[in-house]
Amino acid sequence: MTDLKPFHLKLPATSANLGPGFDALGLAMAFYLTIDAKVADAFRIEATGRNADLCAALDNNLILSTYTSVLSTANRPATPLFLQLHNEIPLGMGCGSSASALLAGVLLANHFGNLNWTNQQILEEACRREGHPDNVAAGFLGGMTASAMSKNSVITATYGLNLNWSLFLALPSASLATEKARALLPDTYSRADAVANVQNTALLVSAFALGRGDLLRTAMQDRLHQPYRMEACPLLPKLLPLTANPAILGVALSGAGPSVLVIADPASAASVPALIREAAADPSLEIIETTIAPAASLA
Fold it and tell me: Whole-model pTM?
């Protein structure tokens, strides 16, 4: 190997779909999975932060399984690594934790396997393994991303990197597996529902491109996945009515749920946590206050 120097990764959390943008839109949020990796005699992980015990486990570890799988496919040896990991992303809560782990595995393989992939190749490999591009694209490129996959190609556009909107992630106590959330969806939709989502998705991309927060109340409305996930995500119907408050720009399920993303006017941000907890009827509800994140940091 010609380059086995240590590698630093800082990957943001993500919120996918953003209402109508099912499997197409993703938003990077400024709390992170941070990894410092170096060559070791055997695989080892030290983890701090959220779910540190799960993150430190070597068995069924998505970062390591992706790392070894990518290198095996490329006919390269999987050099053992020591990972010092700090995780701020809740697991199983619709915040892109699996996408960040998968992307980390691809990036580690590219670095320690000397694959010399371009950013586009890295993105396409991660999206292919994830199955859809929304979380991966936002986690790699930052901002709000609109993405489409065609065979093994991924086309992505990024918006909103300079927007100062305040983001609030309301976290219920129980997690929800993405597979379970997808199983709740119907196989077919009406033309009216499909048209409504196309219209709202176009409006949502325009809102981020133009910095038009006033468009979000309408643009974040969805008919394809949120109505079918209400029962498994009981926080969502409680918080959707918050859009009637002028401080709130938009509300949507975060990814497949069960967390709920609330976007607010930064001038009114101080009042938003109390509004969320009152609507949820839960004074102890955990809320992460954050902002739109830039692209992943690689060094």
Answer: 0.95
